[in-house]
Here is the input.
Amino acid sequence: MSSPTSFEEAQRELEQIVERLERGDADLDEAITLWERGEELYKLCVGRLDAAHGKIEELARRVESARP
Here is the structure.
């Protein structure tokens, strides 16, 4: 499967996978495949959130250092 281009797309796909697994209508092999894809998407989302958090912290430091 291709990687989502945005955090929001990854989150949406992950939510769909969770809903599908919670319904329990996937056979075992498909459930395992869905779980693995879910792990990939989770890692992608966490990575993007961590990167955004780092950028926000950097911007906050710049603002603080620019104050007289």
Observations:
- The two ends are 51 Å apart (CA to CA).
- Helices lie at 7-23, 28-66.
- The chain has a mean pLDDT of 95.
- Residues 7-66 form one domain.
